[in-house]
Amino acid sequence: MKVSINRARHRLVAVAVLPFLLALAVDLLLFAALRDRLPTRLATHFSGGGTADGYADRGAYVVVNIGLAGGLAAVWAVLAATADFALRGARRLIGAGYATAGLTGYLMAAALYANLDAADGSEVRLPLWQLAAGLAVAALAGAVGARLLRLLDLPEVVPPPGPGAVERLDLAEGEVAGWARRAPSRTLCAVGVALLVVGGALTYVYGWGRAAAPLACGLLILACSCPYVTVDRHGLTTRPTVLPWPRVRIPLADVDRAVSREVKALSEYGGWGYRVRPGRSGLILRSGEAIVVRRAGGREFAVTVADSATAAALLNTLAERAAVR
Description:
This protein is an alpha+beta fold.
C-alpha cells in the first residue's frame, strides 16, 4: 500500500539529508580520534600539485566542516521538500546528494590523514590520486543513494496534466488592465543562504580573498530568487524583483495562447531555474501552478507563479485585442 504524500515527502527529505549528517559524523569522529597527532596549524587547502597553500587551526577545521555539511544538508532538504515524485528525477536528486556528501566527506578525511604526525601544516602534501579516490567514493555513494530510494514507498507518479483550458478575461471596450505577482523560490533562497554560510566560514578561516566567490554567488542567487512576473500591454515579462536584468519578455504579437496548468520541474523540465528543453523553455522555480504560453512559432514558455489562471486569461484577452488592431 502506498503511503500518504506527506509521509513520503518526509521520508524523501530524511533520505536526502542523511548522507551529509553521516559524512559529518565520520569526519568529526576521525578528528576527535586523531586530534593529539595533528599539528596546531592544519593544512586545509592544496594546490594542483598537492602542496599545501591554505591553513587553519583545529577549531576552524571543525567550524568549516559543520558549516559545509550543514549548508549542503539544508540545500538538499529544500530540494527534496519541493521536488515531485517522478522516479527518474527523484533518483537523480538523491544520487547527486549522496555523491556530493561522499566527495566532500572523503576529502575532509583525507586532509586530516595528510596532516597526521606533521610538525606543521606547511610540510603536508595531498597527492592527486586522493582526488581520484574521492570521485570514486562519490560515484559509489551516488549509486547507494539511488538504490536506497527504491526502498521508499513513494506515491504513484501521476501523468502530467493536460494543456489546460484557454480562458479569457472580460474587459470593457477601452478598459485597461494589468497583472503582477512575485514568485519566490524556497530552493534558490536555501542555496543562496547556504553559499553565504560557506562564504562566512571561509572568511573566518582564510579571510575575504577565498570567500569572495561564494559570497558573491550567494548574493546573486538571493537577488534572483524572487522573480517579478507581469502581464500588461507589453506582454508577459519576468525579471528579478531587485534587478532589471536578466529579463524575459514575450510580446503580445508572439502569443498564440496562454493557459494555467500544473508543471513538474524535474520530469518535464529536468530541474529548476531557467530551463530549455525541446519545444519548450521556462523559468521553473518549483513544481506546481504555472502560466504556460504557446508562442507563434509553436514553442512554449512557462513560469511557475501563483494565480496563473488570472494571468493567462488576461494575456489571452490582451493578445486578441492587439491582433485586431
